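Hi, here's the filled form for the chain we discussed.

Project: internal
Contact: R.S.
Residues: 407
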Amino acid sequence: MITSHASGVQLHLTSLPDGRLGSSARQFVDWLQAAGQSVWQVLPLSVPDAAGSPYKSPSAFAASPELLEHPDAQVSPEELAAFSEAESYWVGSWAAYGGEVTDQVRFSREWADLRAYARARGVRIMGDIPIYVAPKGADVCAWPSMFRDDAVAGCPPDAYAATGQLWGNPVYRWDVIAADGYAWWVERLRRSFELFDYVRLDHFRGFVDYWEIPAHAETAMEGHWERGPGRALFDAARAELGTLPILAEDLGDIDAAVIDLRRELGLPGMAVLQFGFDPADAANTHHPDHLRTDQVVYTGTHDNDTVIGWWATLPDVPRDMVRAATRATRVSADVDDEPSWALIELALASPCELAMMQAQDVLALGSEARMNTPGIEGGWGWQMDPGALTAAHAQRLRGLTERARRC
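And the returned structure, exactly as it came back:
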């Protein structure tokens, strides 16, 4: 497991009051410490696309300069040379694409300061690795043989989108990548482990089978499954990097092969409480009764509505299922009055080694605070008001966390 019986909060850097590194990031770390939380989860730090999504970045390695607190800080020739040597695998691709390497040096400096600040306060940071990169980005330009130009990525219908999702990212030529010993992926993981204590590996099922869609298709429904690299990629990474502090995002259309690979690799998977109350699925792995220690449980993710928004549209039968679960768990919050805090308590009370909640759910915000709606371009713009997370929020969350023995 990536951590032991702990809890934390998901909040992307762009959702901080000032939307970047700096004072509000440090203040959030202080709040996490006061609230008894030991994990801060962020979304990818990569350069976002025109719609603001960090999951369709022009570089799998470069961080977004928009996150810098001091974008004009001086960078010495010695710093630039040292960084370029340490990150020699990818800085050339980013520079050739037109990216500023000096911005990456500034980011490395500021991020290291935040990591040290968080670590001194008992807070670890979990990052996020998107499985795909943007079309015509730095990686595609630098390593064109690794990518298909006649097919794009997406996923079939799932709990997030009834007609599937047409992402449009280029899919990999896994035979070419395998022939190179998975070097690009190993370096991508190395870079991620330099930045974070743990990483969520997006769309883990794509390493078993991935949904391939013809490049000019109008919908994801025109796609089909293709075989991914399986454990060979992870074996290559372990041979180079050692232990892989990875959380496998295994949501969506999951079959036995995906579960088997995750467990063979000893990686925790994910459970989302909002998915747990389906009256037609008695074996639902997201239901509180079925949660396991090798899962990380979430009230919701950046792709979900907030709990308040979800509860507002939830039909009567699933609502009754939630009520029954809160009674069985002896949740102190009344789910009809405070659904977000009731689900926070359910998550904390679970057997999962790590319980995560969205900051929006701690703040009991509605759908106006939703970060992303899968399959719909845009979003990603929610920002927390200054001072929104108060000492009272911290005290309440700490009390529940101590009661669950997760501090």
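Let me know if anything looks off before we file it.
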